[in-house]
């Protein structure tokens, strides 16, 4: 049962991350002709495409992708409980758990995108199409910090400041929802 639980949880979390990347790419107006962006669109289009006909985007926010991500995070824990215990819990509290899980997934995604962008800046030096998309995604967060705290000695500290802010928000989540935040 642990293997099945791990597989289901991992697949749901990975798909939610891909959906969040799609939302983030539309919000930051990424180049959708980039090969990485095309991969994200193709992997999410079978589910999000039909919903986009019914649920329009609100400004730069892809609401259909956001709805699918929220539904997946809301159903994740009842499905895992069904696998582990054999009981299905349809509690209104699952909506709060789904929202918190979505927020934590978004924070985790931002953290890893910044880490990957920072590592790729040392290796590929701007020649990778993935790095170009990562730059388009993270630049709206890092540019304001860079204006306040410029590079010192050729080292850009804006990524480190964003990561520290994400850590502070994670600790805030632990303080506000002490038992629940660890389970997400």
UniProtKB/TrEMBL annotation:
Taxonomically, the superkingdom here is: Bacteria
Q: Which GO terms describe its cellular component?
A: membrane
Keyword Transmembrane listed: yes
Q: Name one Pfam family in it.
A: CCB3_YggT
**InterPro entries hit by this protein:** CCB3/YggT
Q: Which UniProt keywords apply?
A: Membrane, Transmembrane, Transmembrane helix
Q: Per the UniProt record, which residue ranges are transmembrane?
A: 6-25, 61-83, 95-115, 148-169
Q: Which family does it belong to?
A: Belongs to the YggT family.
UniProt name for this protein: Integral membrane protein
